[in-house]
Amino acid sequence: MIKKLLITVFVCLSFITLSGCGNKDILGTTFTFKYAKIRLVDGRIVEGEVKQWAKYDNQDSVRVTFENGEVYYTHSSNVILYNK
């Protein structure tokens, strides 16, 4: 009984610890990108420092939040995430 409780607590703490690393965590693998370029529908390119990004399961969509608070949600083919 106590052993199962300890294992459950350990697993929960592991997930919390992993989610605190980087700006995107996928199954314990952290993908941290500092910059992004996004092509908008009208052809303009916006770029900036990435605060957070997310790729959704079963979709080709990406949401990028820049440090200045701007949020863009677009198809993954319109986004470049990179580090200098």
How many β-strand stretches?
7
Largest sheet: 5 strands, antiparallel
Helix content: 10-25%
Number of continuous helical runs: 1
**CATH fold label:** SH3 type barrels
> How are the strands ordered across the major sheet?
6-5-4-3-7
| Shape verdict | elongated
Q: What is the CATH top level name?
A: Mainly Beta
- Into how many domains do the coordinates divide? 1
Whole-Å distance between the termini?
Answer: 50 Å
Which regions contain 5 or more consecutive residues with pLDDT less than 50? none
The residue-averaged pLDDT reads: 81
Structural class: alpha+beta
| Helix-strand pattern | HEEEEEEE
Keywords:
84 residues, alpha+beta, SH3 type barrels, 5-stranded antiparallel β-sheet, two-stranded antiparallel ribbon, 1 helix, signal
Task: Report on this structure.
With 84 residues, the protein is α+β, with helices and mostly antiparallel strands. The protein has one domain: SH3 type barrels (Roll). Helix content is 21%, strand content 42%. It contains 1 helix and 7 strands; from the N terminus they run H-E-E-E-E-E-E-E. The strands form 2 sheets. A 5-stranded antiparallel sheet has the order 6-5-4-3-7, with no helix packed on it. The protein has a two-stranded antiparallel sheet with strand order 1-2. A hairpin with a 5-residue loop joins strand 4 and strand 5. The relative contact order is 0.18. The mean pLDDT is 81.
Question: Care to give the gist of this entry?
Answer:
The protein is α+β, with helices and mostly antiparallel strands.
How are the SSEs ordered, and which strands pair?
Layout lengths: L1 H18 L5 E2 L2 E2 L4 E5 L5 E11 L5 E6 L4 E5 L3 E4 L2
Antiparallel strand pairs: 1-2, 3-4, 3-7, 4-5, 5-6
